[in-house]
Amino acid sequence: MTTIGVLGGGQLGWMLALAGYPLDLRFRFWEPAPGSPAGRIAEQVTAPYDDPVALADFSEGIELATYEFENVPVEIARTLAQRIPVYPPPTALETAQDRLNEKRLFQHLGIPAPRFALADTWEQLLEAVEEIGLPAVLKTRRGGYDGKGQAVLRERSDVERAWSLLQGANRILESFVPFDREVSLVAARSVRGETVFYPLAENYHREGILRLTLAPAPVLSPAMQARAQEYMERLLQALDYAGVLAVEFFACGEELFANEIAPRVHNSGHWTIEGAETSQFANHLRAILGLPLGSAKPLGRAAMVNLIGAVPDTATLLAVPHASLHLYGKAPRPGRKLGHITLRAESREALDASLTQILSLADCAPGGEGVNGPSH
Ligand code: AMP
Questions:
Q1: If you measure from the C-alpha of residue 197 to the centroid of ligand 1, how many angstroms do you get, rounded to a whole number?
Q2: With 120 labelled, which of 61, 77, 151, 287 sits at a CA distance of 20 to 30 A?
Q3: Distance (Å, rounded) from C-alpha 300 to C-alpha 343?
């Protein structure tokens, strides 16, 4: 029996373990916070990531390590990699942790992305505003997620406000992309080089947090899917990748601009549990273990709605046709992802009535103020 060590113990880890148990896999999670979703169903080392005793406890007896959270220290992944295989490769983690590295990689690989400039000092920010123009988005290079660590600059008077909001961090300024839609591509590449691609999914955010994913993306053209796969292929090759990789894009018509990569299973891929022949979680495990990958073919149409801040009544949610409920066992807190619902049916029409019900129950109907916009 193989034991896989996972850095991080959130809901992504929990779903990885659930996908791994049918393959007789065991899991050990390293997560600083007690009572994590993954800790509900697997062994958890609860300690800060700089604790050397915890490192020894965690690595004892594991054959392979992966991560489910992007902001784990890359040094831990590197230290582990000296002893056991660590997938995705720590370089991918390092790249994803710094928006500058990410943007440079896109540039190097010829993948279209928003224009960007460094904005570490006030003078640099003013120069960057001159170079990029407005509107633009100021972002911290590290540690930002779910729309945190960013501010939109629409006019000159926003520059100072954005600067004071993101004090004390390295920053980049990037051009604001007037996108029609946000889409993401999830792919899995195995250590043996086999690759599968899920269909592009369309994502709706509010206050920078993903609320709704439609998969396959309703307005998907074969050309757009092919283009996204081509960009993904370049990234997978360049990073010598194994595991699941997600890339978020801004779509302007048929054009795609890469926003960011996530070297892990991704929230916009949760629909694959019910909505694809093989889930992203199962394929991540197959990929890092060198097992044959499963088909990424969608089974009809799916919609995934995140439950954020509060969870509606279980019976009410389950009464909605086509609904599957996933609750992460986390304490409610504003802005916190507590669970998700997947709706799956043979056609979009069959999903629509259910989706309307779920969106009103989950209070996250897209189209409201702030949808698809960064939080500040
Ligand atoms: P991020 O943390 O980079 O994924 O940004 C969170 C959300 O802010 C994205 O999903 C977009 O809705 C929005 N956003 C981020 N960067 C830009 C940009 N350069 N242009 C337009 N919208 C953006």
A1: 23
A2: 77
A3: 10
Q: Is the dihedral of CA 34, 37, 38, 39 positive or negative?
A: positive
Cα distances from 215 to residues 110, 212, 219, 342, in angstroms, run 27, 10, 10, 10
Instruction: Work out whether strand 243-252 and strand 181-189 pair parallel, antiparallel, or are unpaired.
Output: antiparallel
Q: Is the pLDDT of residue 256 over 90?
A: yes
Q: Which residue has the tokens 């690989």?
A: 109
The first and second tokens of residue 38, run together, are 């993954």
Please write the tens of the pLDDT for every residue from 180-194. Answer: 999 999 999 999 999
- For residue 168, pLDDT beyond 80: no
**Could you identify the atom of ligand 1 that is nearest to the CA of residue 136?**
19
The residue whose C-alpha atom lies closest to atom 12 belonging to ligand 1 is 372
In this structure, how many other beta carbons lie within 10 angstroms of the beta carbon of residue 112? 16
Tell me the C-alpha distance between 302 and 355, whole Å: 10
8-state DSSP, 371 = B
**Phi and psi based region of residue 100 (left: phi greater than 0; alpha: psi -120 to 50; beta: remaining):** alpha
pTM of the model: 0.95
Q: Which residues line ligand 1 (CB under 6 A)?
A: 114, 137, 144, 147, 174, 176-177, 182, 205, 208, 248, 259-260, 372-374
Give the number of residues written for the chain: 376
Q: What CA–CA distance (Å, rounded) separates 283 from 261?
A: 18
Spatial contact of 188 and 145, defined as CB atoms under 8 Å apart = no
In this structure, what token pair is assigned to residue 333?
A: 């807190």
User: Which amino acid, one-letter code, is at 214?
Assistant: L
Q: To test ligand 1's pocket by mutation, which of 70, 100, 102, 137 has the most ligand atoms within 8 angstroms of CB?
A: 137
Select from 134, 256, 259 the residue to mutate for testing ligand 1; criterion: most ligand atoms less than 8 Å from CB.
259
Beta bridge partners of 251: 181, 256
Rounded to a whole number of angstroms, the CA Rg of the chain reads: 20
